[in-house]
Structures are given as structure tokens and as C-alpha cells.
Amino acid sequence: MFCEKGNALLRATGLSKSFNGVPAVASVDLDLDIGESVGVIGPNGAGKSTLLGLLVGSLKADEGRLIMEGRDLTRMAVHRRVSAGIARAAQIPQTFGRLTVAENLRLPAVFGAGLHGAEAERWVEEVLEMCGLAELAGTDAEHLGLLSRKRLELAKAVAARPKVLLLDEVGAGLTEPEIEQIMELVRKLRDGRAVMWVEHIPFALRGVCERLVVMDKGAKILDGPFEEVWADPDLQAIYMGVPDDEVA
Ligand SMILES: Nc1ncnc2c1ncn2[C@@H]1O[C@H](COP(=O)(O)OP(=O)(O)OP(=O)(O)O)[C@@H](O)[C@H]1O
Ligand SMILES: [Mg+2]
């Protein structure tokens, strides 16, 4: 199964998903390794969130395989994939509004990271600190502002102790200085993990990711060092609507 690049931490091959017969993700191959941070861009509807859904298991692939550390996760449910080390901060925050910030983190600490009692409490404290939420630990999630809600969505994913951290538009709707704070946080979170960050904000990805993946119409069309991919005429063609044969 493993080919020339060696044993990737996570390897997706031929992942595909259609909705009502219309392909949303079409035969995507992807390798992720610890220490890597990968940006993902592509127009609305390109299949970015669907791809993350296939990786985290909230969506079931029609075809393809997902292998992590030699284990086949393809048919594994979300909660088991979280325990195996994949977690996602969703595009639409999925926090429990009536629970406090700390309580929101206890759930993934227990059910994702598998911690209990004092150990779970210590880990929640650590995640609160790491994610800049310590002072808001006792606040109900529904009373948070947007930046703090985004931090909490990130923190919930981190609390599950993932090796693969998937981020879906955690910067969307924020001001530039706020996005810089999120960038600083994601930079910290790269350490010891593979991070894949879907975002429509190029400067945020450029500041954090050394690799860039481009999706269009369900396909992964580019994948490589950030600046190389950024300069690729195919990327200009997608965003500028310039036909391929007219790109210099
Ligand atoms: N649950 C669903 N049911 C039906 N169609 C869906 C569903 N989820 C996604 N799609 C469709 O699949 C395609 C890919 O959607 P997806 O949300 O993955 O795109 P995206 O790249 O994340 O876009 P955006 O940048 O707007 O978030 C779109 O055509 C979308 O309408
Ligand atoms: Mg999306």
C-alpha cells in the first residue's frame, strides 16, 4: 500500500463522494505527515469541506481508502477516527452554547483523547492556555464573540489530541488583526501534528503553511511547495476564469 514517499502518517487514495449523482470530491489522493502544515484553497463548492468530512468520517466515501499509521480507517465512524488521531475544527462552529468554554473542551478531552479525572482537567487547562481561552474558561460558549468562538472551535479539536488537525475556515469573518491572532495560534499547533487548513484568505495560509493544495470541481489539481503552487498558471486560470490555453 505504501509507495515511494514512504510511510505517510495519513494516506488517502482515490477518495470520492457524490451528492445526488453529482461529484463533490473526485478521486483525491493525499498524504499528510507530522510537522507538515498544508493550506487548501479553491473556489466555493470545490469540495474542500467535503474532503475534510471524508477524512474525519462525518461523510462516508463512495470510493477510495484512508490509511493512518498502517490502519485502515475507511469504514471507521467519526468517534473512532477521533480516537485514532483525526480531529476537525468545522466551518460552522459546533460548540454547545449552554456549556462553558471549559465544559466544551472536557468532552473531546474525555471521549477523544481518552483522559479521565485530574488528567483530563489538567489537559483542558493546558488547551485553554494554549488557545488563549484561559480567562474565558467559565463563560458560556453562547456569550463568546466571534474570535473567541473560533478559538474555541480550534481548541475543541486540539483537546482530542489529534495527530492530524483539520481546520475549515477558522479565519472566516474575522478582521485582519484577528486573523493574525489565529495564524499565531495555528503556528503553535503545527508542532508535533499534521495541520491541514482550508481557508479563502491567502495571506493567512502563506504565513503558516509551507505546502498548498488547490481544489477545483472536486479534484485536487495542484499540490506542492506553497510559493510554487501559488505561482502556477493553473491557479490563476481558476481564480481569474482564464482558459488554460490563454495562460502564459
Ligand atoms: N450534504 C450535502 N448534500 C448535497 N450536496 C452537498 C452537500 N455537501 C456539499 N454538497 C455539494 O458538494 C459540493 C462541494 O461542497 P463543499 O462544501 O465541499 O465545497 P467547499 O469547497 O467547501 O466550498 P466553500 O468554499 O463554499 O466552503 C458543492 O456543490 C455542494 O453544493
Ligand atoms: Mg467549505
Short description:
With 248 residues, this protein is an alpha/beta fold. The chain has nine helices and ten strands.
Verbal overview:
A 6-stranded mixed sheet has the order 6-7-8-3-9-10, sandwiched between helices. Helices cover 36% and strands 25% of the residues. The mean pLDDT is 92. It is built from 9 helices and 10 strands. It has 2 domains: 10-85 and 162-242, Rossmann fold (3-Layer(aba) Sandwich); 95-149, no CATH class. α3 (101-112) packs across α4 (117-130), α3 runs parallel beside α5 (146-159) and α6 runs parallel beside α7 (202-208). The chain has 248 residues and is an alpha/beta fold. The relative contact order is 0.17. It starts with 9 loop residues before the first strand and ends in an 8-residue tail after the last helix. It binds adenosine-5'-triphosphate (ATP) and magnesium ion. Magnesium ion binds at residues 48-49, 91, 168. Magnesium ion (MG) binds next to α1.
* Helix percentage range: 25-40%
What strand order characterises the main sheet? 6-7-8-3-9-10
Number of strands: 10
Q: Mean pLDDT, as a whole number?
A: 92
CATH hierarchy: architecture of the largest domain: 3-Layer(aba) Sandwich
Low-confidence stretches: none
Going by helix content, strand content and strand pairing, the class is alpha/beta
Number of self-contained structural domains: 2
Give the class-level CATH name of the largest domain.
Answer: Alpha Beta
**Tally of helical runs:** 9
For the record, give the distance between the C-alpha atoms at the N and C termini, rounded to a whole number. Answer: 38 Å
Shape field? globular
Order of helices and strands: EEEHEEHEHHHEHEHEEHH
Write the CATH homologous superfamily of the largest domain: P-loop containing nucleotide triphosphate hydrolases
Biggest sheet architecture: 6 strands, mixed
Over the alpha carbons, how many angstroms does the gyration radius reach? 18 Å
CATH fold group of the largest domain: Rossmann fold
Distinct small-molecule ligands in the complex:
adenosine-5'-triphosphate, magnesium ion
